[in-house]
Design brief:
The protein has helices spanning about 90-100, 100-105, 110-135, 150-170, 190-195, 205-225, 250-285; strands at about 80-85, 85. The protein is mostly helical.
Length: about 280
C-alpha cells in the first residue's frame, strides 16, 4: 500500500549546515524549474517507493528507518552517513581510494611538479579507457547506462571543462568554447547557445575524439608551463557567464579540471564495464 506523504514542515538546519539546499556537489544553481521545496521535511510512512530515483537532491538530515534497502545504488557527497548504526563514510572513501589511487594523488598535489605528475596519470588512465571504448561498437558509446551520460557525452563534457576552467580562466581567452562541448545538465540552454554550443547537436564520435585530443593537448601545454609561483595568480575571468563572481587562483581552476578528469574517468570505466558485459552477451547469442 502506498500512502501520501505526511508533511512535517521544514526541518531546521543543524549548526554548521548551509541554510540553503545544496543540489549536488558540483552545481551552484538548481537549474530551470528546479529547487522545489514541496518535499522538505516530508514524511513517507508505509510507502511503496520501489524504483524511485533521486538526482541532484539535498538529502541532508534524512532518516530511513526500518526499511528494505535491496539493490540500492547511492552516489554523491557523503558525510556522517550511518547505516544500521555504523558510520560508513570513511569506509566508502577508503575503498574508493583503494580502487582509484589517483584520488589520493590529487589530494596530495602541492607543487607544479605534482600537478604535472597528476596530468601524466590522467593521460595514462584515459588512454586505457579509450582503448577499451575503441573495442566497442560506436553505437555503444552513445548508450546511456542507468540514465547517466554516455561515453561520448562524458568526453564532450570534459571538452567544456577544459574550455571553461583552463582556457578561459587560466589562459584568459574570452570565448574558447568548442561548439560540441557539453556543459553541466543544469546550465541554462540560452547561456550555452550564447557560448556557441548547440545542446541538440549529435557530433560523430571521431569529431568528439578530435576535440578531446585538442583539449588534452591544451592541458599538457598548460601544466608544462606551470610554476609554483604562478599557481597562486588570480584569474580575471569566471569559467563562463552565469558562474558565481568570486576570486579563483590558477591552481583552483586547474584543480577543478583535474578533479573532473578523475571523477569522470571513474564514472566512465564503471559504465564501460556494463557495456562490455552487454557486448559479450550479445556476441555469445
Amino acid at each position: 500500500m502506498t500512502e501520501a506523504s505526511d508533511p512535517a514542515g521544514p526541518a531546521p538546519a543543524r549548526p554548521g549546515e548551509p541554510s540553503e539546499a545544496q543540489f549536488g556537489p558540483h552545481r551552484f544553481y538548481a537549474g530551470e524549474g528546479g529547487g522545489g521545496e514541496q518535499f522538505r521535511g516530508a514524511r513517507f510512512e508505509v510507502a511503496d517507493m520501489r524504483g524511485a530515483r533521486f538526482t541532484d537532491c539535498d538529502l541532508t538530515g534524512v532518516t530511513i528507518r526500518d526499511c528494505w534497502l535491496v539493490n540500492v545504488s547511492i552516489s554523491g557527497y557523503l558525510s556522517n552517513v550511518t547505516v544500521n548504526g555504523v558510520d560508513v563514510t570513511e569506509f566508502v572513501n577508503a575503498e574508493l581510494d583503494r580502487r582509484h589511487p589517483e584520488r589520493v594523488q590529487l589530494r596530495e598535489c602541492r607543487t607544479a611538479d605534482d600537478v604535472r605528475a597528476m596530468w601524466d596519470t590522467i593521460e595514462g588512465l584515459w588512454a586505457q579507457a579509450m582503448a577499451r571504448a575503441g573495442r566497442l561498437p560506436v553505437a555503444a558509446l552513445d548508450q546511456q547506462v542507468n540514465e547517466e551520460w554516455s561515453v561520448a557525452q562524458t568526453l564532450r563534457h570534459l571538452v567544456f571543462i577544459t574550455d571553461a576552467w583552463a582556457t578561459r580562466t587560466v589562459l584568459d581567452e574570452e570565448m574558447p568554447y568548442h561548439p560540441l562541448g557539453l556543459p553541466q545538465s543544469w546550465y541554462p540552454a540560452a547561456d550555452a547557445a550564447a557560448l556557441g554550443i548547440d545542446l541538440a547537436a549529435r557530433p560523430g564520435y571521431d569529431e568528439i575524439l578530435a576535440a578531446r585530443a585538442d583539449r588534452m593537448a591544451v592541458m599538457r601545454r598548460l601544466v608544462t608551463d606551470l610554476t609554483d609561483e604562478g599557481m597562486g595568480r588570480l584569474c580575471e575571468r569566471s569559467p563562463a557567464p552565469g558562474y558565481p563572481d568570486e576570486q579563483r587562483t590558477v591552481i583552483d581552476c586547474v584543480g577543478v579540471v583535474l578533479e573532473e578528469e578523475i571523477e569522470h574517468y571513474r564514472f566512465a570505466v564503471r559504465d564501460l564495464a556494463v557495456l562490455e558485459a552487454s557486448q559479450q552477451l550479445h556476441d555469445r547469442c
